[in-house]
Amino acid sequence: MIRYVFGRLLSLVISLIVASVVIFVVIEIAPGDPASFMLGLNAQPETVAALRAELGLDVSKVERYFTWVTGMLSGDFGTSYTYRSPISELIADRVVVSLPLAIYALILSTVIAFPAGIYAASRRGGVGDMSVMGATQLGVAIPNFWFAMIMVLIFAINLRWFSAGGFPGWDKGFFGGIKALTLPAISLALPQAAILARVMRSSLLDMLGEDFIRSARAKGLSQRQALWKHAVRNALIPVLTIIGLQFSFLLAGGIIIEQVFFLPGLGRLIFQAISARDLIVVESVVMLLVFVVIVVNFAVDIAYAAVDPRLRTKT
Amino acid sequence: MTLLSLQDLSITINGKPILHDVSFDIRAGEIVAVTGESGSGKSMTALGIMGLLPRGATATGQIDLDGVDILRTEEAALCKMRGNDVGMIFQEPMTALNPVQTIGDQVAETILVHRAAPKAEAMTRAAEMLERVGLPNDRFPLSRYPHELSGGQRQRVVIAMAIALRPKLLIADEPTTALDVTTQATILDLLRDLVDEFGMGLLMITHDLAVVANMADRIVVMQHGHLVEQGATDDLLRNMHHPYTKALFAASGHKVSLPTNSHSAPFLSVQNVTRDYRTPRKTLFGKPGTFRAVNNVSFELNKGDRLGLVGESGCGKSTLTRAILGLEPVQSGTITLNDAPVFSGKKPNADVRRKMQVVFQDPYGSFNPRHRVDRLISEPFHLLDTPPTGAARSDAITKALTDVGLTPADATKYIHEFSGGQRQRIAIARALITDPELIVFDEAVSALDVSVRAQVLDLMAKLCRERPLSYLFISHDLSVVRTITDRVLVMKSGEIVEQGATEDVFQNPKHPYTQTLLEAAPTLPDDQATR
Questions:
Q1: Any idea where the ABC transmembrane type-1 domain is (chain A) (predicted)?
Q2: A94-308 belongs to which homologous superfamily?
Q3: Tens of pLDDT along A129-169?
Q4: Which residues of A touch B84 (CB under 8 A)?
Q5: Cα–Cα distances in angstroms (integers) from residue B448 to residues B225, B256, B422, in the given order
Q6: Does B120 touch chain A (CB under 8 A)?
Q7: Is A310 within 8 Å of B90 when comparing Cβ atoms?
Q8: Where are the domains of chain A?
Q9: Which residues of B, range 252-281, sit inside 8 Å of A by Cβ?
Q10: Over 70: is that where the pLDDT of A236 sits?
Q11: Which residue in B90, B281, B284 is closest to A215 by CB distance?
């Protein structure tokens, strides 16, 4: 088990190094240098030179790469050209909204999907199964911003239970923050829950056809006992994979939902930075997102091993 | 005392009749074997007794287990009965256990689900049961997971699960079909001992008539869902009434006559071949270990030779086969066909490769379902520099199909339209179409029913008479190797421990392993096999 964790950890570090090199190179090979790109076509040569000096572009590329990486390791992501403030602060302000939102949405989606998937699998072919599958079909088909707008109409405008958007900040109290994130989290969670429920169901149905379920039934377990005691844990592997992918998406992919609810999240930051050609911000935020994705994958790998003893003995 | 009594049991699945009016009894302490070919309804009978019929199945008649009519019992009561009064073991031990639970938990679950004992006592009893089936606690602690055990050991766990509460009836559905012969012998011994010790009734389902003849007190023969004949084993073997029973036993001991081989020139030469596999690293930065799958193997195959290769799973048969086909490099030694190496540089030697063809075990998995038969069997033409086209191609296809007993019209059909035996004929046609000098039959008849197997063996003998056919016949089934080969190699742990003329080796095995193998293999009583 320790070897397995150590092996996964090593692959995590290697992935991070490779990713940082790729991101750096891609930004570097953008036509012209970052300074002239950021200032646009009509910039004066002196302005470009000044920005180059400010961004530290006048040293060698290798040196710049190491400055960038060591800076990030110590929490210094550089200074944004457009915002004129440290990027670490910009990111920190957004992460306190995006990260709780992503976790909130993921919890909701899991809480909805697990029972729905298990229920549908245990009622295969029946009315319950068909209703759940019909609902998930809709959930997959309907875009999340449409859910968002409908929920704003119902719960914010008509019932006035929630505000229609904005984020008061965590210093106004935990429940205030959670309340502001509830409608966005539900809109993000519904389509994800629909996908997850379908994966859970089909994975469970695969497991219910396995020989060891028949063995369990021959021991005297009822269909329901066999499902809960033997099928669910075995069905978790593909489900964990999807959860890992969904978390990464929820963290940065919520840009439309952030837009609908006026939330100052990471998605909006990266969108604004791209519009303003603020390459330094783009580079750092992308690196941060890659970091999160890789760490989440590591966590999923560890979860696999917790579920499946066969992985613990392999390398 | 009658333990189980089936009266006119009929089963339909979604309206399709599967079983017709089956009636037989089992007494306590008695071993009854139900035998027949695939599709005869053997397994469905067993599932009916367990009350575990698949969705859409309806059963009529009566299944009386110790005074309880199973077909008229509620599911909740059936759950109490399963594991308690009747246990079941299955064919495939590799998948019959939950991979994410320890063996101790899985055996104890039988006790816990019936609330027969509290958790701690259930674990103690699970340990006792595992000990009883030959998995002593010091070497096989309860905390082992299934993947840490071999196939035979897993089957012992499945048996322990089934008998943990000492049921009155044990149903064993092909319990040894997936196991090697020596493992099969120990598992069959175990089952027999358990029947004696516990006074259980044992309903054994198997297609292997030799196992049936050795194990059963009584035999039930089934065909297409009908019970065609039943009787005490000795009576039935001595005096078969139904033509199907006679045909089944005749096919099981089927012998073919091969023409004598007049060639003596060496043709395929395998000299001191060693094949290593890398094993996972023991430490993170340590060197990977190696596993020697084939160790210093040498043999020659003459033109026209029919050479057998026998051995148990993991002995290196398949690795050696892949090396001969030039699919993988070897670490030392040489393999040549007509003095040309089968593997040159980093890839198979195409000149040699086109002279060899192979027929695999699984007649279902070895064809692309989206291609027609003409395309499937003409695939080896890719190996030729100038493949035949137009009329020459269709003539070759027609000839290959008629040679294996199919019709030219079959060329335009898809593979799903054929039975398992016909598919294996198509596989042989595919191997023959380029007129190869050597054919490798890799467990080519192992998945077939005995009557179909007999037909395919006849086909092979016929082909041998018609053309100078040389083949390497790899099989775990000793009785088949005995009739279809003139020379045989016995392989164990990567080495060839004995080789010689087939009949000599079978009648007078020299190596202790060959002796063990032959002793372990169940055989039909001689006079029955030749009837």
A1: 95-300
A2: MetI-like (1.10.3720.10)
A3: 999 999 999 988 988 888 888 888 888 888 888 877 778 77
A4: 220
A5: 19, 17, 10
A6: no
A7: no
A8: 2-73, 94-308
A9: 280-281
A10: yes
A11: B90
Q: What percent of chain A has pLDDT over 90?
A: 20
Of the partner residues A211, A220, A233, the one whose CB lies closest to the CB of residue B95: A211
- Domain B2-252: which CATH number of 3.40.50.720, 3.40.50.150, 2.40.50.100, 3.40.50.300: 3.40.50.300
Q: What is the pLDDT of residue A164?
A: 75
A6 touches chain B (CB under 8 A): yes
Q: How many helices (H) and strands (E) does chain A have?
A: 15, 0
- The tens digit of pLDDT for each residue in B316-375 reads 888 898 889 888 888 888 898 888 888 877 777 788 888 888 888 877 778 888 999 999
Mutate to test the interface with A, among B80, B94, B97, B98 (most CBs of A within 10 A): B98
Q: Are the C-beta atoms of A164 and A275 separated by less than 8 Å? A: no
How many Cβ atoms sit within 10 Å of the Cβ of residue B284?
Answer: 10
Task: Locate B474 and state its tokens.
Answer: 């790899």
Give pLDDT, residue A114. 93
Which residues, numbered 34 to 63 in chain B, qualify as contacts with chain A under a Cβ-Cβ cut-off of 8 Å?
A: 50, 52
CA distances, A134 to each of A114, A128, A141 (Å): 16, 10, 11
d(CA B136, CA B323): 39
Closest B-chain CA to A208: B98
User: Is the interface score ipTM higher than 0.85?
Assistant: no
pLDDT tens string B482-526: 989 999 999 998 899 999 999 999 999 999 999 998 988 888 776
Every domain of chain B and the residues it spans? 2-252, 364-435
Q: What is the DSSP letter of A136?
A: H
Interface test with A, best of B100, B158, B170 (most A CBs within 10 A): B100
| Option in A216, A234, A310 nearest B147 (CB) | A310
